[in-house]
């Protein structure tokens, strides 16, 4: 393909496969990036060319039958044998079998495996290992390995998610991905050294970038154990844009269809209006259109942040790792929740035809909704963000300056909204900052009161986790609103396009408040009158957006081939397309289906069944 940009390459494959999850999806999405980010230069030199040219096809095998979320609880072991300088991979229990990794069952011949590292009788936590699982000659499964598919799933039918287990499989020491931690000496030139270390210690015991090595299996931990989690942060940062893509495509289909579909005479004898003219249809679809634009902007921001922070990490500066983890984890959860729920609303807005595969909507849904689970289950991810917000809150209370986007935390909450009839963008941002700051403080207060009441830290955490979840969700929502407003305000408002986009941005903010009103009104921040301003503004924005609604979805520029939808066709020839789709159905290739003779005829004409049964046996 020759496309080097990861997101471009992903989109190109998405176009080619039109929502069918590529059987090599994990090879591209996680196997290659993990080698890139977690392997030493020598390992990269050896594996990357093979993997990039499909001489190694791999996946990312971390989740097990018994553990997906709790990585430190994974049971697969990798025990270092200093005599043979090998790792022994083993699946000691039923629940330790790897289960779920994409492209694992029948496609991959290698995988990077997350296993608990043991050396010199001690556990050092989860680490990544390169493991060949099938022969490069005939693709047969190698000795000491059991691998297969996990069977039918909710969707992702083109991806052979699989199971995998090891029976004391030996792999060379060099197969541990040693970028951030090592066991067993590797040549000095592979040590990614921080120059500050070269001058201070003799060259022969040069420290690895994050660790020291000894051939007897002595392990020295990396600068931060979570560096091994880097591939997940990368994918979480990509999933935001993928969720936005799914929601945008569903909006294209449902809004174009709503402009074609006419239903119910508006008044006795009158013509049937486009269903897009029904206010209730606008109420359900236009905020989703706004959300699709907002999530696309958020996806760009978080991926660019990932690239910037990852650059710093590669230079040994881990300072921004916690903020990136909190942002990527929270936005991955927020975007996949919003997109999954939104795609389902788009389907419902298309009536019966929305339920047909011909609409393209079911495929988009089953393609996006697993994003609520994989790469970190959404609730758990939101709680990771909440963990970071709690730390920010206590730092704010100690008078410390907070970094970038979280400066709203700890603000004075004794203020009222500036909202007027005009519904200024600035007042919208202030409302979301107030709500998030208040929910962060409420969660912190709840935890403090539980601890003061004698609860242990983990009990207080669990006893506050609903409020922690609310705080994290409000934090992500604020991020999306503020990021959208910043994008609008960064542009001159002269051009018509930006003026239209300002309405879309306003709708995103207004609708989000009205759909979460309790959280904005609980402390009297908004008056009843101000809520009235917002309700009237929302209805006015529907009218304002209606003339440009189709242009706003056309602007996403998804070709018909990618949408794969009879309802969302650019030319609007919906009914002919639906009829052609029906005619092409395999069951319509014969006038009488063979099952008639076997099952129906005996019911309808039992007397003539015998010769029919002969016929059916033909
Ligand atoms: C574009 C579409 C492509 C679709 C393809 C994708 C297919 C799907 C592929 C997969 O699903 S691969 C498997 C994905 N599995 C996961 O994502 C598992 C999720 N679980 C975790 O990430 C960790 O288990 C979890 C963060 C929930 C808890 O980890 P720990 O128990 O080690 O951490 P803990 O919660 O005790 O926090 C310890 C510290 O580590 C920090 N931390 C945790 N994860 C981090 C991280 N990733 N980066 C940086 N810091 C991290 C955390 O903030 C905290 O910092 P503080 O102590 O300062 O508060
Ligand atoms: C389509 C698909 C593709 C996948 N591909 C891969 C892959 O390629 N490689 C791979 O390794 N894995 C893959 N996975 C597995 C995926 O990463 C895990 O399913 C995911 O990490 C969730 O873990 P789990 O299934 O153990 O759920 P669990 O963690 O068991 O979650 C179940 C419930 O428990 C709750 N819960 C769990 N822990 C906590 C907590 N600490 N606090 C509060 N609530 C909690 C969750 O919120 C959730 O509601 C895939 C999964 C799917 C669906």
TrEMBL record:
Domain of life: Eukaryota
Domain Acyl-CoA oxidase C-terminal: 427-605
UniProt keyword list: FAD, Fatty acid metabolism, Flavoprotein, Lipid metabolism, Oxidoreductase, Peroxisome
UniProt GO BP: fatty acid beta-oxidation using acyl-CoA oxidase; lipid homeostasis
Co-factor(s): FAD
Chain segments annotated as coiled-coil in the UniProt record: none
Name of the protein: Acyl-coenzyme A oxidase
């Amino acid at each position: 393909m020759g496309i080097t940009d990861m997101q471009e390459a992903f989109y190109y494959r998405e176009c080619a496969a039109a929502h069918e999850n590529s059987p090599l999806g994990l090879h591209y999405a996680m196997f290659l990036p993990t080698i890139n980010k977690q392997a030493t230069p020598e390992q990269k030199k050896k594996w990357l060319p093979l993997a990039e040219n499909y001489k190694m096809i791999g996946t990312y095998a971390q989740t097990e039958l018994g553990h997906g979320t709790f990585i430190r609880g994974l049971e697969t072991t990798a025990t270092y044998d200093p005599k043979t300088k090998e790792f022994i991979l083993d699946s000691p229990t039923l629940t330790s079998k790897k289960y779920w990794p994409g492209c694992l069952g029948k496609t991959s011949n290698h995988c990077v495996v997350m296993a608990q590292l043991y050396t010199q009788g001690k556990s050092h936590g989860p680490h990544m290992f390169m493991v060949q699982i099938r022969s490069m000659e005939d693709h047969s499964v190698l000795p000491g390995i059991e691998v297969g598919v996990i069977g039918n799933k909710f969707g992702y039918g083109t991806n052979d998610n699989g199971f995998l287990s090891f029976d004391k499989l030996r792999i060379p020491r060099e197969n541990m991905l040693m970028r951030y931690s090592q066991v067993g000496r590797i040549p000095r030139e592979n040590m990614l050294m921080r120059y500050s270390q070269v001058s201070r210690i003799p060259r022969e015991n040069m420290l690895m970038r994050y660790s020291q090595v000894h051939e007897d299996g002595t392990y020295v931990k990396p600068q931060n154990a979570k560096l091994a989690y880097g591939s997940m942060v990368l994918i979480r940062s990509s999933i935001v844009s993928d969720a936005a893509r799914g929601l945008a495509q569903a909006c294209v289909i449902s809004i174009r269809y709503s402009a074609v579909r006419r239903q119910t005479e508006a008044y006795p004898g009158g013509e049937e209006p486009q269903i897009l003219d029904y206010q209730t249809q606008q109420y359900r679809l236009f905020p989703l259109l706004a959300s699709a634009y907002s999530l696309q902007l958020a996806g760009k921001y978080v991926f660019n942040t990932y690239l910037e922070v990852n650059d710093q990490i590669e230079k040994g500066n881990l300072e921004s790792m916690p903020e990136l983890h909190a942002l990527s984890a929270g936005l991955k959860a927020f975007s996949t929740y919003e997109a999954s729920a939104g795609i389902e609303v788009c389907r419902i807005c298309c009536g019966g035809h929305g339920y047909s595969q011909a609409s393209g909507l079911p495929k988009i849904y089953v393609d996006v909704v697993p994003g609520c689970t994989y790469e970190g289950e959404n609730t758990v991810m939101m709680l990771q963000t909440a963990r970071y917000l709690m730390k920010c809150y206590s730092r704010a209370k100690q008078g410390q300056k907070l970094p970038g986007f979280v400066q709203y935390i700890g603000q004075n909450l004794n203020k009222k909204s500036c909202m007027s009839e005009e519904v200024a963008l600035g007042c919208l941002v202030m409302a979301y900052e107030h709500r998030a700051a208040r929910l962060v403080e409420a969660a912190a207060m709840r935890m403090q009161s539980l601890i003061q009441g004698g609860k242990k830290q983990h009990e207080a955490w669990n006893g506050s986790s609903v409020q922690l979840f609310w705080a994290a969700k409000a934090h992500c929502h604020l991020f999306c609103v503020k990021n959208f407003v910043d994008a609008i305000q960064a542009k001159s408002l002269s051009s018509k396009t930006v003026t239209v986009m300002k309405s879309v941005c306003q709708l995103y903010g207004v609708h989000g408040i009205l759909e979460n009103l309790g959280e904005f009104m609980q402390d009297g921040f908004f008056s009843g009158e101000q809520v009235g301003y917002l309700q009237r503004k929302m209805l006015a924005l529907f009218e304002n957006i209606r003339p440009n609604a189709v242009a706003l979805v056309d602007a996403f520029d998804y070709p018909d081939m990618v949408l794969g939808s009879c309802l969302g066709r650019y030319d609007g020839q919906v009914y002919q397309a639906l009829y052609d789709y029906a005619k092409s159905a395999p069951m319509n290739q014969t006038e009488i289906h063979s099952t008639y003779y076997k099952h129906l005829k005996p019911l309808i004409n039992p007397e003539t069944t015998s010769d029919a049964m002969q016929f059916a046996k033909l």
